[in-house]
């Protein structure tokens, strides 16, 4: 028995197929979840993939946050269901307030598409256990609304509790406060980040690195170990 | 028909690069004397019924939970006759 990992598709989601593939490459079973279906089909974890759900209308993630599937995911996350939000998925997670802060337009106003170096600052979450603490990884970054903001009190709290999971290394690509690329909730089951691990799981494509695969092997090991 | 306008603005402490880009373009276009520009969103809501306290309370709730993200934005609700 392997783990079943749900991958949500909203209207405007782009990276659901790559995410399903990444789940499969890691050895787990991807389960497509549809935004209008409240049923999570007994999945063991959920990934909210990247894209432009609902055209980013109003604010990125603001409309998806109220979709039927999110009701179940929000309730599940509060009960410990592991949830990973990538890019637009991270934006959805901040809009639901499962993760603190918000995402705004990049400070230089340009869409960015590049390989980005990150430092893993917390390898004790459900999604990062296969990385070394302080390990540097390089995975694609592609967005225009990637500037992470939160007030000073929240930022200090995140730092004090070790909830900054990823920081941009060498270069801050969008003006994110304190170089934050990804964070987790207090329990460590919900993680969001802007860069795209699902695009870096096979040596054949991209940079030839598989630095993103660890997200998916981490959660698989955790779920299989737990069952 | 009654109209209620909700204006949503980024909080003052939040950097607004779009507003800055507009402001920087102004002198080039011959518009002088503008010290700062902040860009926001305006929602015009046409009500089916009267604008009473109950309707305004629901609109404030709508603005708080949906139209604005109060982590980064402030909003105002105004009734237009």
TrEMBL record, chain A:
PROSITE patterns reported in the protein's UniProt record: GATASE_TYPE_1
A molecular function (GO) term: glutaminase activity
Intracellular or extracellular location(s): Cytoplasm
Primary location class: cytoplasm
Pathway involvement of the protein, from the record: Purine metabolism; IMP biosynthesis via de novo pathway; 5-amino-1-(5-phospho-D-ribosyl)imidazole from N(2)-formyl-N(1)-(5-phospho-D-ribosyl)glycinamide: step 1/2
BP-aspect Gene Ontology terms: 'de novo' IMP biosynthetic process
Pfam families, A to Z: GATase_5
UniProt key word Cytoplasm: yes
Quaternary organization: Part of the FGAM synthase complex composed of 1 PurL, 1 PurQ and 2 PurS subunits.
Physiological role: Part of the phosphoribosylformylglycinamidine synthase complex involved in the purines biosynthetic pathway. Catalyzes the ATP-dependent conversion of formylglycinamide ribonucleotide (FGAR) and glutamine to yield formylglycinamidine ribonucleotide (FGAM) and glutamate. The FGAM synthase complex is composed of three subunits. PurQ produces an ammonia molecule by converting glutamine to glutamate. PurL transfers the ammonia molecule to FGAR to form FGAM in an ATP-dependent manner.
PANTHER family found in the cross-reference section: PHOSPHORIBOSYLFORMYLGLYCINAMIDINE SYNTHASE SUBUNIT PURQ
Protein name (database record): Phosphoribosylformylglycinamidine synthase subunit PurQ
Species assigned in the record: Actinacidiphila glaucinigra
Organism taxonomic ancestry: Bacteria, Bacillati, Actinomycetota, Actinomycetes, Kitasatosporales
UniProtKB/TrEMBL annotation, chain B:
Domain of life (superkingdom): Bacteria
UniProt-annotated location(s): Cytoplasm
Reaction equations catalysed: N(2)-formyl-N(1)-(5-phospho-beta-D-ribosyl)glycinamide + L-glutamine + ATP + H2O = 2-formamido-N(1)-(5-O-phospho-beta-D-ribosyl)acetamidine + L-glutamate + ADP + phosphate + H(+)
InterPro entries named in the record: PurS, PurS-like_sf
Record EC number: 6.3.5.3
NCBIfam families: phosphoribosylformylglycinamidine synthase subunit PurS, PRK05974.1
Assembly notes: Part of the FGAM synthase complex composed of 1 PurL, 1 PurQ and 2 PurS subunits.
Protein family per UniProt: Belongs to the PurS family.
Protein name: Phosphoribosylformylglycinamidine synthase subunit PurS
Native organism: Actinacidiphila glaucinigra
């Amino acid at each position: 028995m392997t783990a079943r990992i749900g991958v949500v598709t909203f209207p405007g989601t782009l990276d659901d197929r790559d995410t399903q593939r990444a789940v499969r490459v890691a050895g787990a079973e991807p389960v497509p979840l549809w935004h209008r279906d409240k049923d999570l089909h007994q999945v063991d974890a959920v990934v909210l993939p990247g894209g432009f759900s609902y055209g980013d209308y109003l604010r990125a993630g603001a409309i998806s946050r109220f979709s039927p599937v999110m009701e179940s995911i929000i309730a599940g996350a509060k009960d410990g269901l592991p949830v990973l939000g990538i890019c637009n998925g991270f934006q959805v997670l901040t809009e639901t307030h499962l993760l603190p802060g918000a995402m705004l337009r990049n400070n230089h106003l340009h869409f960015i598409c590049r390989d980005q170096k990150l430092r893993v600052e917390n390898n004790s979450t459900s999604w990062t256990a296969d990385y070394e603490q302080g390990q540097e990884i390089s995975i694609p970054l592609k967005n225009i609304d990637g500037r992470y903001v939160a007030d000073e009190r929240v930022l200090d709290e995140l730092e004090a509790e070790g909830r900054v999971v990823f920081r941009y290394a060498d270069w801050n690509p969008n003006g994110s406060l304190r170089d934050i690329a990804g964070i987790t909730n207090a329990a460590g089951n919900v993680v969001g980040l802007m860069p795209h691990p699902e695009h870096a799981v096979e040596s054949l494509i991209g940079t030839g690195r598989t630095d993103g695969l660890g997200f998916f092997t981490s959660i698989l090991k955790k779920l299989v170990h737990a069952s | 028909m009654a109209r209620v306008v909700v204006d949503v603005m980024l909080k003052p402490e939040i950097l607004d690069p779009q507003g800055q880009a507009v402001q920087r373009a102004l002198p080039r276009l011959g518009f002088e004397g503008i010290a700062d520009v902040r860009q926001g969103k305006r929602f015009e809501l046409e009500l089916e019924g009267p604008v009473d306290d109950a309707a305004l309370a629901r609109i404030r709730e709508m603005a708080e939970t949906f139209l604005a993200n109060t982590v980064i934005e402030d909003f105002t609700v105004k009734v237009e006759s």
